[in-house]
Amino acid sequence: MDIDAWVWWLIGAAALGIPLVLTAMPEFGMLAVGAVAASVTAGLGGGVVLQVVVFAAVSVALIAVVRPIATRHRAGRPELATGVEALKGRSALVLERVDGSGGRIKLAGEIWSARALDTDRAYEAGQEVDVVEIDGATAVVM
Does the keyword field hold Repeat (predicted)? Predict the structure, then answer.
């Protein structure tokens, strides 16, 4: 039983798809697309040399064009802040006077203990303050 060249290229594409899924390295996917392009070339009657050239050209072109775009996109994605990191920089409402020794604020729908960043400064009930950092269970505000 003789298997056509285009089938071998498809088998190669599938074989390249396995490490793509296991390692999440997009380069394997680009090589798999190159193998599919070589399979199409073989199906249309192209010779072995043309098949290899198409495989190499498509793979290199995808890696040269798509990889830098994907890298730039991945680097530009904002980091998702969660937990106390998400509270930094938010506004809060003073419920009880806040000074260097303590007080209470309403932050993100919850009541928090708070203290002023500047120990000489005091914030009265009803004022809006900004959360600078979270120190344990205490919001440091200004």
Answer: no
